């Protein structure tokens, strides 16, 4: 790993820096989870073509996933502050286009543009936080980052539902445009850090697709944590409401309320992790290991999912899964970016977010496909299997049996990835000077603090 340049003290960031960056990043999770709520209203206005309607959600998600990797490379060349600002402008353009779209083709195109911009915001924003803060302030900043992402993911559907009711489906995209415009205006008043004295040319020249962060065992160990969580948590978050409908006959509203034990811990987990690190001096990797154990245990306890048992018994595994996802939510970003040289931070952020988002999409797709295929095989009718997997009632026992099998499979996958995390971390040796692990002094106390490259 290349050594970082030493400076006696890093410049003190603006008090408004963290709120501005976090507000910008908030655009990403609400855009991921919120648009689906508006689909029925969009269908009534612009048509019901199923492929084009799914493009409203999938176009954004695919563009976001692919673009995070590309923006990681671009950010190393044009600077992190410029990446963040370009992302805001792109999201503003895409959100305005979404709100004004007169047909599904234009709406899908605008959503793709929004996804590209959201990726730049996430890449530039997390890297800016990584370089602007250190020690306790850095741990606290990434804890807040995790909380903001958790709030956006958990509250996105509710917030969007209220906006659709009050303003119509165009209001959902109008609010995103308003947030992007507000943050863009704030960025114009020197809230973001000035570019570093270190020129972009000091970074080693590589090909356009820079995957060098994956060569670091410490980075790869941390980057695999959200991959494990995708299989253990995101699959449950996606399919549990359908499962509750198919097995226990819950309607959408009841199933939504029943998901609160799964989502509420995500809001407090990152702040709890930050407090444990800064006040109790708990190692970040102790928190990561604990989170992985919680994820595995939560998946295994879904053996309680059975039509003959009360669904209330699922509250315990849901809480465990919620904290397993929430505890390392912001911590992972901080530890991953601290494990690579400063000039590779944008590439590292891009690779991390690509693995995170890509694994979420893969986990959900594999879980759904396997669930439908196994149910179809059990019933001897693939078409009926697909209907039951989508929530059709009448085959509760079969659905519950297959769902429990899938949860055990998720626990096994999470265990394997968790073991890889531990082995890679041991192979990585001692922590990076930028890591929050066992190193909580301020920049003035740390002669090895790296120069922020913005």
From TrEMBL:
It is a multi-pass membrane protein. Residues 430-454 are annotated as: Disordered. Residues 17-428 form the Major facilitator superfamily (MFS) profile domain. Residues 445-454 have a biased composition (Polar residues). The keyword Calcium does not apply. Its main location: membrane. This is MFS transporter. It comes from Streptomyces iconiensis.
């Amino acid at each position: 790993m290349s050594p970082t340049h030493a400076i006696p003290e890093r410049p003190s960031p603006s008090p408004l820096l963290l709120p501005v960056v976090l507000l910008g990043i908030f655009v990403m999770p609400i855009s991921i989870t919120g648009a689906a709520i508006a689909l029925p209203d969009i269908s009534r206005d612009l048509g019901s073509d199923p492929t084009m309607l799914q493009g409203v959600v999938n176009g954004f998600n695919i563009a976001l996933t692919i673009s995070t990797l590309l923006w990681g490379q671009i950010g190393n060349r044009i600077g992190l502050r410029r990446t963040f600002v370009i992302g805001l402008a792109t999201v503003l353009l895409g959100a305005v286009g979404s709100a004004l779209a007169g047909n599904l083709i234009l709406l899908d195109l605008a959503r793709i543009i929004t996804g590209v911009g959201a990726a730049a915001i996430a890449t530039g924003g997390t890297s800016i936080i990584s370089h602007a803060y250190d020690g306790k302030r850095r741990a606290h900043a990434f804890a807040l980052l995790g909380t903001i992402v958790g709030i956006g993911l958990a509250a996105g559907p509710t917030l969007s539902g209220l906006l659709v009711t009050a303003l119509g489906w165009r209001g959902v995209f109008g609010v995103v445009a308003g947030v992007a415009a507000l943050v863009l205006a704030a960025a114009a008043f020197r809230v973001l850090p000035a570019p570093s004295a270190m020129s972009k040319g000091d970074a080693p020249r590589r090909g356009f697709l820079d995957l060098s962060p994956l060569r670091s065992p410490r980075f790869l160990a941390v980057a695999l944590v959200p991959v494990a969580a995708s299989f253990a948590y995101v699959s449950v978050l996606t399919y549990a409401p359908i499962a509750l409908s198919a097995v226990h006959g819950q309607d959408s509203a009841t199933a939504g309320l029943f998901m609160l034990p799964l989502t509420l811990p995500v809001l407090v987990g990152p702040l709890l992790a930050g407090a444990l690190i800064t006040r109790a001096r708990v190692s970040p990797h102790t928190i990561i290991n604990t989170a992985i154990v919680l994820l595995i245990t939560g998946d295994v306890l879904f053996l309680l999912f059975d039509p003959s048992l009360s669904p209330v018994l699922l509250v315990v595994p849901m809480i465990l899964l919620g904290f397993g996802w929430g505890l390392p939510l912001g911590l992972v970003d901080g530890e991953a970016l601290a494990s690579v040289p400063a000039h590779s931070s944008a590439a590292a952020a891009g690779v991390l977010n690509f693995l995170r988002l890509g694994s979420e999409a893969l986990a959900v797709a594999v879980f759904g496909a396997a669930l439908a295929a196994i149910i179809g095989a059990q019933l001897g009718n693939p078409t009926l299997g697909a209907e039951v997997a989508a929530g059709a009632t009448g085959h509760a026992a079969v659905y519950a049996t297959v769902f429990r099998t899938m949860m055990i499979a998720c626990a096994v996958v999470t265990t394997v990835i968790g073991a890889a995390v531990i082995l890679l971390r041991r192979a990585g040796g001692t922590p990076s000077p930028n890591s929050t692990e066992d190193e909580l002094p301020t920049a003035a106390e740390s002669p090895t603090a790296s120069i922020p490259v913005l």
